[in-house]
Every structure is written in C-alpha cells, then in structure tokens.
Amino acid sequence: MSKQYLKGKEAVIHAYNEDDNEIAIIPLDEDYDRTNVYSLQWNDDRVSMSVSGFLKQNNIKPDQTIRYPPEWDEDIGSEQVPGALVIDLDQEGEVSPAANDGADEEADGAEA
C-alpha cells in the first residue's frame, strides 16, 4: 500500500509523536541535507531507508525486527506535503526475520 505514496519520491521526513507512540513518514519530492530527512533507496520495485539514527534519537529500541502496516493520513502536512504514512507502534506488529540489523524499512510494511 505505501509504495503508491512513495513512488517517484527521493526522500522522507520522519517524525515521532511520543504521546501517541506513532511515527509519521512524510514523502518528499527531493532529498535535502538535513538531519530528519532520509534518502530512499530504490531497488527494482522495492524501496528502503536507513532509520537506525532516527530510532536511537527517539529512544525507540525494538528487541527484534517488527513489521507494522502503515496507514495514509491526509490530515498531516500542507499543500506542499499532502499527507504522511503513519505507523502506530502500539498496534500488533508482525515479527519479521531480520535480513539486516532492523535498521531499514520497506514500503510494503514499515519495520522498526
């Protein structure tokens, strides 16, 4: 589902709402050299991004790689940013076999 919102995008902004325990992933048309902007790496029809720094910065320390289904929220953003993918970390996630250290997210389900 989330691939449709990331297609053609170069980067995302991540934001953490500690009160709601949610991560927002805001698609960007271009990449920027800023600490909260993460480049997208495209491989065929799959997209990934390195998020280990974001997780550390926000003290999110999963014991294992867990896949969460993100939902599109049109209420986040502005005219230039028409929404965001939102991951509710309180929802039941699916434990995923870690192909790496758990520091990447894929567009068909976000991993933390």
Features:
mainly beta, 38% strand, globular, 9% helix, 112 residues
Describe this structure in words.
- Residues 99-108 have low confidence and may be disordered.
- The radius of gyration is 13 Å and the shape is globular.
- It is mainly beta and 112 residues long.
- The protein has helices at residues 3-6, 52-57; strands spanning 11-17, 22-28, 37-39, 41-43, 46-50, 66-68, 71-73, 84-88, 94-95, 104-106, 110-111.
- A five-stranded antiparallel β-sheet has the order 3-1-2-8-7, with no helix packed on it. It has a three-stranded antiparallel β-sheet with strand order 4-5-10, with no helix packed on it.
What is the topological layout?
Blueprint: H1 3-6, E1 11-17, E2 22-28, E3 37-39, E4 41-43, E5 46-50, H2 52-57, E6 66-68, E7 71-73, E8 84-88, E9 94-95, E10 104-106, E11 110-111
Antiparallel strand pairs: 1-2, 1-3, 2-8, 4-5, 5-10, 6-9, 6-11, 7-8
Largest pleated sheet: 5 strands, antiparallel
Percent of residues in helical segments?
under 10%
Number of strands: 11
- Mass-distribution shape: globular
Q: Total number of helical segments?
A: 2
Name the helix and strand elements from N-terminus to C-terminus, one letter apiece: HEEEEEHEEEEEE
Q: Report how far apart the termini are.
A: 17 Å
Strand content: 35-45%
Mean pLDDT: 81
Largest beta sheet: strand ordering: 3-1-2-8-7
What is the radius of gyration computed over CA atoms, rounded to a whole number of angstroms?
13 Å
User: Based on helices, strands and strand pairing, what is the structural class?
Assistant: mainly beta
> Any low-confidence stretches, pLDDT <50, length ≥5?
99-108
